[in-house]
Amino acid sequence: MKSLRTYLSVAAMAAAIGLAGCSVTGTAPTGVTGTSSTGSSSSVSSGSASSGSAGTTTAVSLDTLAQDTHFDGDDLTWDTASEVAVTLADGASSVASGSSSGVSVDGDTVTISAAGTYRLSGSLTDGKIVVAAGEEDTVRVILDGATLANSTGSSFVVESADEAIVYLADGTNNSISDSATYADQGTDAPNAALYSKADLTIAGPGTLAVDGNYNDGISSKDGLVLAGGTVTVDAADDGIAGKDYAVLLDGAYQVTADDDGFKSDNEEDEGRGWVLVNGGTLAVTAGDDGVKAFNTLTIAAGDTTVKESEEGLEAQHIVVSGGTANITSNDDGVNASGGSSTASSGAGAGGSMEVGDYTVDISGGLLTINAQGDGLDSNGNATISGGTVVVNGPTNDGNGALDVNGELAVTGGTVAAAGSAGMAVTPGASSTQSGVQVTLGSSVPAGTVIQIADPSGTVVAAFVTTKAAASLVFSSAAITAGTEYTVYTGGTATVSAGLGEGSLDGATQVDTVTAGEYTAEQGPGGGGGGFRR
């Protein structure tokens, strides 16, 4: 842990994302390799962060991450000759002869009490690993074909350390599971299969299966960095949780959780409680929120999929600057709400909605949303300046594909938001990129091709609905303010994420719309009549 640590504010995060050069685009930092004194090495396999078809990946730089988290490249380098080998076995765990005195075995509890690198192999069917090192100690635990289970509580607990690193050895399968009930259920007692009171890093090219049968799967009460590995988590409550921050740099993480999937929840300390997806892949099935931050949630690179959730992405401030995010929700898909902000007394264009210190800021990447509630929802303002945003919103008129209490400013990128017509929100007066609002006479079924053609008959947008829709708001650089466009349904289209190229052969004309003219009766925040750019 760095003695002087800064935490990313919204402004600092945005500045970091804009950095050129040294980008994290692979497993941990790509290509970090440390050579030992014996000639062997510990290395991180290279991967690549996914980016959407909408632009380049803008990963936060390694230098910035080193300043704002406990993680740096040195965490994944060590002298293999100094490793302490620990063999796990029921009633017979042992430490290699002549190894460090930093390990003790008491029955089926293995305790690590000093800084160093410890390689664990074997299994405990009813035991646990405890890290109880000094406050300045870095403890690296290599899981090398290790199976850990406990019938009375957590099977891997970091009680004290400066930083704990769980490294998954190449070519190995590892597992950690806890019991459905804990003997110690005190306020500060462990509550996860893999539990840490110190900064925690998970890395390495191996695999790890975590079963959180009692509460959480993986939980850090400090910072959490996921820098590699193929990891599956199944949890009775939250899947993966950090407190000060939760960062995904690389690896493939699949989370199934009865409550939240991937989160950071520090509500007490200013500037903390943030989440960053900076590479790798994250797939979440959640009973509540898919990915959640108390403060700022940023997707800068990688591939994020929320397969099932109540609300897909939720935070006070939500930033999408790169990568791909595919969100499915029973309620709001992207929801800027909560946090520590107090809403102002102002109102949106509808005159009744408070505008608080909540933001959605999309500048790159590909964001697709399939929501039963509001698609993209901000209790404050929202800005789209780049990337591609595709929303398949609600079919009921009580929610909208776009719902912004303040103003929706569209200055770039591509936006296609389909859904019901009763609460449609359109780009606000400060938008510098024009768009069109299509209100269909009646709802069209899933799979309908909606095409927008310019006065020459050239198709400038083709959209295929994922579910029934009665309206479409579309904005891109291809739309010219003041120009009249003809709207068709039918014909054919070749699309990716619902958008692409179309042909009017067999299509039926349904409407004409003028770019920048939006209807007056539409819902809160972005609605309001008149001509806009």
Could you give a short description of this structure?
The chain has 533 residues and is mainly β.
Oligomeric state: single chain
| Main sheet specs | 13 strands, mixed
Percent in helix: under 10%
Average pLDDT over all residues: 86
Shape: elongated
Number of strand segments: 43
The Rg value, from CA coordinates, equals 25 Å
Could you tell me the strand content as a percent range? over 45%
| Total of helices | 2
Q: What are the segments in which pLDDT stays under 50 over at least 5 consecutive residues? A: 1-57, 340-352, 520-531
Structural class: mainly beta
Q: What distance separates the N and C termini? A: 50 Å
Strand order of the largest sheet: 5-6-8-10-13-16-18-20-22-24-27-30-33
Write up this protein.
3% of the residues lie in helices and 47% in strands. It is an all-beta fold and 533 residues long. A 13-stranded mixed sheet has the order 5-6-8-10-13-16-18-20-22-24-27-30-33, with no helix packed on it. A six-stranded parallel β-barrel has the order 9-11-14-17-15-12. The two termini are 50 Å apart. The chain contains two helices and 43 strands.
